[in-house]
Design brief:
Oligomer: single chain
Radius of gyration: 18 Å
Number of helices: 12
Shape: globular
Order of helices and strands: HHHHHHHHHHHH
Distance between the termini: 44 Å
Helix content: over 70%
Number of domains: 1
Structural class: mainly alpha
Length: 263
Amino acid sequence: MIKFFKGFLINVQFFTALPFPYELPMDKEHLRKAVQTFPLLGLVQGLIYSSLFYLFNEFTPFSHVAVAFMLWLTTIFLTGGIHLDGWMDASDAYFSYQNREKRLEIMKDPRTGAFGVLSLVVLLSCRFLFIYEGTLNVEYVTYIFIIGIPFLSKSVMGVLLLTVQSAKNEGLGSLFQSAAKPRVLWVYPLYIVIFLIISLLSEKSSFLYAVLVIAAAACVFIFRRKAMKWFGGITGDVVGASVEGTELILWMTVWLLHYFVMV
């Protein structure tokens, strides 16, 4: 249990901007536990997002657009932009329309090109639209959606990391792949089922969360194929881009549910 908790703290250090100055062991056993706790990190992120949204929405005089903007900012600052960096690097590489080897070289370049900047603007603009309109009529299930989105995106991250070959033998992605095998992912479905059961016990309309699970499963299928086709496998940047892409698709799903189901 201690190793499990330390694995979770490794994720806090790597994937959030939360201050945690202590040195943690980086051996294979602890990295394996870190992979198993990816979804739990997403769950904590979701709880922070949902709690802040609730507090601003219920106890402040701010307009809905202001509350949505604060939630949008929190999704950026809590992660420290680590996945957004991967999104920009992967976008620069993809839109270069070069071969795989050249794309991998472009992702290693610390400079950001025009395509990376443009793709970031599009991503964040779309996310704000989906957050704003997807939370216009706040219901109990809205808070479940907000919690579930980073929970599922981090689950997708773990699945892609361990089921797609590495495109290069260096970097953060390779570090985790060398420590864990796909069999450690057995706990992910358990997390999702428990989350769904708890949600259903608290609110019957939470069955809509299953739609997000299906969308996340589709993301795994799509991003696995694209990672192999475009980059020859997974890198840390590709994983980061996949996390951002998954969250965008999940927010879009909430937005569509808002218009066509939650009326």
